[in-house]
Amino acid sequence: xxxxxxxxxxxxxxxxxxxxxxxxxxxxxxxxxxxxxxxxxxxxxxxxxxxxxxxxxxxxxxxxxxxxxxxxxxxxxxxxxxxxxxxxxxxxxxxxxxxxxxxxxxxxxxxxxxxxxxxxxxxxxxxxxxxxxxxxxxxxxxxxxxxxxxxxxxxxxxxxxxxxxxxxxxxxxxxxxxxxxxxxxxxxxxxxxxxxxxxxxxxxxxxxxxxxxxxxxxxxxxxxxxxxxxxxxxxxxxxxxxxxxxxxxxxxxxxxxxxxxxxxxxxxxxxxxxxxxxxxxxxxxxxxxxxxxxxxxx
Amino acid sequence: xxxxxxxxxxxxxxxxxxxxxxxxxxxxxxxxxxxxxxxxxxxxxxxxxxxxxxxxxxxxxxxxxxxxxxxxxxxxxxxxxxxxxxxxxxxxxxxxxxxxxxxxxxxxxxxxxxxxxxxxxxxxxxxxxxxxxxxxxxxxxxxxxxxxxxxxxxxxxxxxxxxxxxxxxxxxxxxxxxxxxxxxxxxxxxxxxxxxxxxxxxxxxxxxxxxxxxxxxxxxxxxx
Lengths: 298, 224
Prior knowledge:
The structure holds 2 protein chains of 2 kinds.
Chain A: E1 4-15, E2 18-28, E3 32-36, H1 43-51, E4 58-63, E5 66-68, H2 72-76, E6 79-83, H3 94-102, H4 110-119, H5 133-145, E7 151-155, H6 163-178, E8 183-188, H7 191-197, E9 200-205, E10 208-214, H8 215-221, E11 223-228, E12 241-247, E13 250-255, H9 260-268, E14 272-278, H10 281-297
Parallel strand pairs in A: 3-8, 3-9, 6-7, 7-8
Antiparallel strand pairs in A: 1-2, 1-4, 4-5, 9-10, 11-13, 11-14, 12-13
Chain B: H1 3-16, H2 18-36, H3 40-71, H4 75-79, H5 85-116, H6 126-150, H7 153-175, H8 178-184, H9 193-218
Helix pairs in contact in B: 1-5, 2-3, 2-5, 3-5, 3-6, 3-7, 5-6, 5-9, 6-7, 6-9
């Protein structure tokens, strides 16, 4: 049986203008999940429910064997959390923050914290209000990582960073993650960031999970087929094709269940397969969300 | 309830508010100094300064430790620590009150000492002063409770205004209670049952308000 660090079962949360609807989500231990959604899709609400900061109206949430939100204090002993809207105390130094956080986490590793100070090029004696946004994100990451969490939850940590700082933070994060064996949930609306570090991907849109799978499965199964049809030939319905673009004789098919057999079917129809294009995670995400919205509209 | 975590949260607020505490104590001591000059005008000016110092520190604590926690987005940092909502609530209530009690007790005991020195304040004013000191404590609890439950600057400012007005109204009302009024004109202490009842009512209201705050906080579903 798979060891799960996070498990959402039928979780719902109602707000006057937004509903998180029937969320089923599992995060196997040791995996790095990219949680992708547009702004306002429900990523932060889902993560806040995971952290016990927001109480779900429906369903059950289990994190590291603890029921949330009732057992959040015990669960949070093993969680490192950094979110885009999280701020540290501006009037205090990073050194004070490290002392404060270390006093609350028995597994705090000061030697590792010192190493991260060096790696992130931070100055412990500097007040937080004197740091740049990129440095603040790094400081928050340091405070989350040095507590040696079994689960690391990163809610849009790269949002608002300039390209240089974003690259630095992601680079440092990847370097840090390379030598660790921990479960990570990384949310972002930036698919490039997620693609770099995740091995599992979940798409969320308008409060519902659209799709969830291994990153490689997404990249392997999604393809764009560029065809040339013979005159007067009609494109038949092909299983797994979720979007047909292009023009009459030059259709472009998008499939989320690519199988080389599809090419044979097309060729049997007399069609010429001009190209089979791989898709980026961003293209997969956008197509996936558009397909779901169209399906819901129909 | 993990009291060790509660203690750490209280110490955190104590550290972050240390300058405000020092400033309020110094301001209060200055006000006591004015009272020591002697004479009715100095007494009134000193009293107003003293009350102002205590209201200011109470209002500052409510805004700085609770409203700003949300406004400056440090709440999600605090709530990412291994604490429950109940521990956060207890730490905020207890922590802010303990921090307030430091300048409060220094100033209240300082005021009490003025009664002890020869040619100081007439002893007959002691019941009125005691009732008003507890009224200031009640006022601070109101500001803290509103700030904690609403986390809203607007509501907290409204509570500060209401508290400020109520101090004047309560002061006027208490000063005109026959038992208290008679005693105020005396040079010797006259502790009346009316003074005891007034204090009991104030403490009961403080206890009720703190219980109500815990109840409302326990019903909150969204913390960040």
